[in-house]
Amino acid sequence: xxxVVGSKNPVKIEAVKEAFxxxxxxxxxxxxxxxxxxxxxxPWGEEETIRGARNxxxxxxxxxxxDYGVGLEGGVMELEGKLFECAWVVIKDCNGKEGxxxxxxxxxxxxxxxxxxxxxxxxxxxxxLTKEKDVKKKGGAIGIFTKGKLTRKQAYVHLxxxxxxxxxxxxx
Length: 172
Prior knowledge:
- Helices cover 37% and strands 24% of the residues.
- With 172 residues, it is of the alpha/beta class.
- Helix 1 (10-23) packs across helix 6 (152-163).
- The model has no long low-confidence stretch (mean pLDDT 96).
């Protein structure tokens, strides 16, 4: 089985690999591909974030020999005057079936929320505040905020499994 992730981010690729290996018993090859999400670098709102994930999944299906295209997109959403992180996963198979999973909601600290509202993107903001490089390719913002108790990869594994529900044996 060949799975293409619409990203070169190693956290996303590893999360998809782990989730697919938990879900299926067959041999799985997971590769990343740089694709265009079709949404801003910092998606705002769940609809825009889902659209980015869907576009990534669709673009991933254009590669040769692909069984599944997977798009993962992180975004932010406003709720009750507070800014939250959110993430969505869309999986598409070569037969046109689509599965969607989402979540990873957590309130962003005021300093981070203010910087995002001023036009910033979460990834670079986290790099700036932590003085680390490529936080989103490691534990992510959630990893920083939870002191490593929950990493971006761990959270994404759950979201990918949620999107795989459509391929559960009982589903049809």
